[in-house]
Amino acid sequence: MTQSRDAFEARLRQIGADRYHDKHPFHHLLHGGGCTPDQVRAWVINRYYYQHSIPMKDAAFMSRVEDPDLRRQWRSRIEDHDGTETNPGGIRRWLKLAEAVGLDPEYVSSTEGVLPATKFAVDAYVRFVREKTLLEAVAASLTELFAPAIHKNRIAGLLQNYDFADDSSLSYFQNRLKEAPKDVAFGLAWVLDHADTQEKQDAAAKALTFKTDVLWSQLDALHAAYVEPGRIPPGAWQPGTGLLDAKAA
Ligand SMILES: O=C(O)c1cc(C(=O)O)c2c(n1)C(=O)C(=O)c1cc(C(=O)O)[nH]c1-2
Q1: How far is CA 87 from CA 78, 90, 207, in A?
Q2: What class of enzyme is it (predicted)?
Q3: Is the confidence at residue 249, as pLDDT, over 70?
Q4: How far apart are CA 204 and CA 151, in angstroms?
């Protein structure tokens, strides 16, 4: 049976409550101050791959949209990450964080050393958005409903626990707190408007579930490689490499 708008929204929110990556042990370690400097670096290197792929995902989405009003709404997402003449954009802000934790931003932006599972998961998200219906693509972006809470926790946890954390190094997250709410309000309303049959509601819920898997599996890979059991796959980043100091020396 097709759910009411409110019941369907509650179903989507429950997916986040059950499966969002704020529950992953790696995030508890990171936000609680339990990560070593190298574990923080590994997170920054791998998460960069997500950041660099998000605008490509949004461009893939826009390339399939025929409605100029929807494209107009969507394109600010690309500018938020890639920047404009007046805004450095999220990718540059992420590289500031990379420098603050002692990484060479050129190394990080080369995406060498990214874990294979990170690439598989993130590339699967871009492919999903390229190939599935527009409804499924927008529904997959709705994990951002749950992101402001994790960004707030992260800012507070990093400021409290790590010397590298300050307004400049954490500017990526401060900005997302301003940018994400408008995106997600639009995306949620669009999904609620367009998922008007049971079949479409099921497909949207499945897309959001898929996206929680994309996020969770990245942290599983990070945890296995750099925390427990510490099995770094061939070709992935080795602590002691890709550092700023090495470049200065
Ligand atoms: O730090 C996080 O936990 C987190 C999660 C997510 C998300 O839920 O997909 C995004 C972001 N951050 C983020 O910064 C971001 O720009 C973003 C874009 C998207 C998307 O799917 O279009 N998700 C996310």
Answers
A1: 12, 9, 31
A2: oxidoreductase
A3: no
A4: 24
pLDDT in tens, 75-120: 999 999 999 999 999 999 999 999 999 999 999 999 999 999 999 9
Give tens-digit pLDDT for 177-200.
999 999 999 999 999 999 999 999
Any domain includes 70: yes
Note whether residue 94 is domain-resident: yes
Does 200 contact ligand 1 (Cβ within 6 A)? no
Taken in order 45, 46, 47, 50, the sign of the CA dihedral is positive
Nearest ligand 1 atom to the CA of 173 is 14
Beta strands in 86-183 (DSSP E): none
> Which residue among 144, 182, 188 has the greatest number of ligand 1 atoms within 8 angstroms of its CB, and so is best to mutate?
144
In short, whether 145's Cβ falls inside 6 Å of ligand 1 is no
Tell me, in angstroms, the distance from the centre of ligand 1 to residue 19's CA: 15
The answer to whether 177 and 49 are in contact (CB under 8 A) is no
- Beta carbons within 8 Å of 69's beta carbon, 6+ residues apart: none
Total structural domains in the chain?
A: 1
Q: Say what the pLDDT of residue 248 is.
A: 62
Q: Which residue has the tokens 């409903």?
A: 145
Q: Which residues form the domain of 81?
A: 5-233
For residue 129, is it within any domain?
yes
Provide the 10 A C-beta neighbour count for residue 126.
18
